[in-house]
Amino acid sequence: MTSLSNMPEKNTLNPSRRTFLKASAMGGGLMMTIALPGCATLKNGGLTQAGDTEQWDANAWLRIDSDNSIHFVLDRVEMGQNTYTGMATLVAEELEVDPETINVSFAAADSAYRNTVYGLQITGGSTSIVSSWQIVREAGAATRMMLIKAAADTWGIAASDCIANSGMVINQAAGHVQSGQQISFGDLAVIAATYSVPSDIPLKDKADFKLIGKYNKRLDAAKKSTGSAGYGIDTELPGMKYAVFTRAPRWDSELISFDASKIENLPGIEQVFAVNKPSAIGVAIVAKSYWQAKKAQTLLTVEWGDSELTNVDNASIFAQYEKDLAEDSGKNVRSEGDTQAALANAAQTVTTEYKMPFLAHATLEPQNCTAWAKEDGLEIWAPTQSPDMAQVAAAKASRYSLSDIKVNTTFIGGGFGRRINQDFVAEAAAIADHAQQPIKLIWSREEDTQRDWYRPSSLHKLSAAVDDAGKITAWNHQMAGSGVFDYFVGDAAPAQYPFMPKFMFGMLESAGKLGEGIIAPADGSIFEGANEIPYDFANINVDYKKSDSGILVGNWRSVGHSHTGFIVETFIEKLAQLPQVKVQQDSYQFRYDLLSRHPRAQAVLKKAAEKANWGTPLPGCTQGISIHKSFGTWVAQIADVEINPAANANNQIKVKRVVCVVDCGQVVNPDTVVAQMEGGIIFALSAALYGNVTIKDGIPQQTNFHDYPLLRINQAPSIDVHIMNSTEQPTGVGEPGVPPLAAAVANAITAKTGQLFDSLPLTLG
């Protein structure tokens, strides 16, 4: 994975006791930092002067001050997935300290903090622990080794005679005059600062872990419980004003004119003006309070230009998908054997067409951003999943260059991929640039719902070949839909090249849309999961036809896996229900036997069946089973579902229990894994039962929770999560709980009624 750079030797200090006493007596803000830049190396820095105190301030992530405080800069955002605790735990394990003693802060936009998986400073794809598992632990281990060396040199003993524990280095040299004495990390920082990072940094074995796999606290719990956690919407600045922004009903319309005569003299209204940037088109109202601005917005009259979406609706979108699926040669993303020949010679062919809806993110915290424009720069406070893309968005919407823009990342009240797109940052930057004062832009729930970057809708056609013995001999999956990358590459591509001037951003965006590794990777967001079906078929073919609906789309929790998990597992269930198959195996055994090449998947599936008491559902229920691998993690789920056809439409399907088994490799924080599986199941169940954004005349029709409902607490099932013990490298947990759920519920209904599902949300037929 990651490796350390071979750093040149430097003159190291072999301090005497006098030197140590002199250094530790200096007090103040002596600091030690270890840098973990995006190239995944460790390095240290020299002593520098900061005010009246010396610092060892190399770069980025880990710092120890002379007051013995430990500071860790979190390079991934915290939006509920518990990176805040997980990453600090990795440091604490190797540094031999309690995670609660570590002060965690959020990273600003800086290429040093790039996610090595994506080449961007982005939190997504369940990659936070994956990308940092080794390098963050190396930082803690290297720091501990250097502090121990500083203490050993001070005492004149071997480093092997010292141990680190709870922020202290302890002298254990037998018979040594100072044996049993200890020195704090803070007192040793100035000496350790003069050393080079060790070239060989051994990490703990799993058997020696004290925290990893065992630590079950949340370091941000107290802040969130007391209201002291700073979310984007909580930002307050001196002299700050509030803004609302009126956008076109159809996102591609141009602004023609507006009439603000009814609001210009209302109490609290300070400015009303047009914004006409490519990434921010509309009319801004700036007021002393949000409510004053929001009330005034209802009296604003705006004339919008023509739109290419005027005649677009769900029917026309799926007609386009159908046409492109039939006519476009598309892209083959998996081909094994001769699928067409197997289908042509099959004893029986099974087919299904699936239609997947647009889905909104519906984050608890609506989109917001605070921006302070000054003569010499622009400062941003934003709940963003990508600070460097936010920096680009702000630059494109304002007069400022990237080097003039500072981005402060806050706690995030739900991301789910929505905050990878930076439209809310661009709007705030444009408004603040015009107003030249601190501005907080807040979106209403209605604006957040109707101007979301939705999970793409898509059309899928699946067919399978079955022989006389009931064996599946071929699998063919054809799909059409929008890719999400085109909708954020305009910010992503320039963020990868921050040294490029603004006039080249358009060129970088165009190059990024070409994909295939030219500027950015090819977009696999629609077909991911479909191209990696784990079942053992001799002939497999998967084709993707890119078909852009024109509706704004983006990453949605688990991205393509969110629909391919449902499609693959309900189609597998359809095959399992064939009479010649069902007479031999039930739904569980059918899957288990087809997973013979994936023993980890078999183990997960088997444990789920055991824990759910497969075959003996809860009273009044039937059971459905599903398994899916996403972001490196296997998740199997069994749903116990009760059906009441006499109830109203929203209550006919009652999920009583979900048993979930997850294999995510080595676990850092067990409670986080359980919480993410629980949250993913609730999130997915909301979508399975209710999720559907419909388009009419190019305008999304849903506006708030009354017509885009989320699961209520009284509708939530009992959730039983089990984690597989593993020594494998960690894999993702933020998203993998989502893909299997809808299929598990659908398959339970199939077991009860025989009804097969080819669309979402689930409705009884």
Characterise the protein shown here:
With 765 residues, this protein is α+β, with helices and mostly antiparallel strands. 28% of the residues lie in helices and 23% in strands. The chain has 19 helices and 29 strands. Strands 12-13-10-20-17-18-19 form a seven-stranded mixed sheet, sandwiched between helices. Helix 2 packs parallel to helix 3, helix 3 (128-155) crosses helix 4 (185-192) and helix 9 packs across helix 12. The longest helix is centred in the N-terminal third of the chain and has 28 residues, at 128-155. The radius of gyration is 28 Å and the shape is globular.
Name a few traits of the molecule:
alpha+beta; five-stranded mixed sheet; 19 helices; 29 strands; 28% helix; 23% strand; disordered N terminus
Mean pLDDT: 90
**Unreliable stretches:** 1-40, 45-59
Helix vs. strand class: alpha+beta
Strand fraction: 15-25%
State the separation between the terminal residues, measured CA to CA.
51 Å
**Helix fraction?**
25-40%
Rounded Rg: 28 Å
List the helices and strands and how they pair.
Blueprint lengths: L16 H8 L6 E4 L12 E4 L2 E4 L5 E4 L4 E5 L8 H13 L6 E5 L21 H28 L6 E4 L2 E4 L10 E3 H8 L28 H6 L14 E6 L8 E5 L9 E9 L2 E8 L2 H8 L3 E4 L9 H14 L3 E6 L2 H6 L3 E9 L11 E7 L2 E6 L4 H10 L8 E5 L13 H13 L2 E5 L2 H6 L7 E9 L5 E10 L7 H8 L8 H10 L24 E8 L14 H16 L2 H4 L4 H8 L4 H13 L10 E9 L2 E11 L9 E11 L6 H21 L4 E2 L2 E2 L17 E6 L17 H13 L12
Helix pairs in contact: 2-3, 3-4, 9-10, 9-12, 12-13, 14-19, 16-17
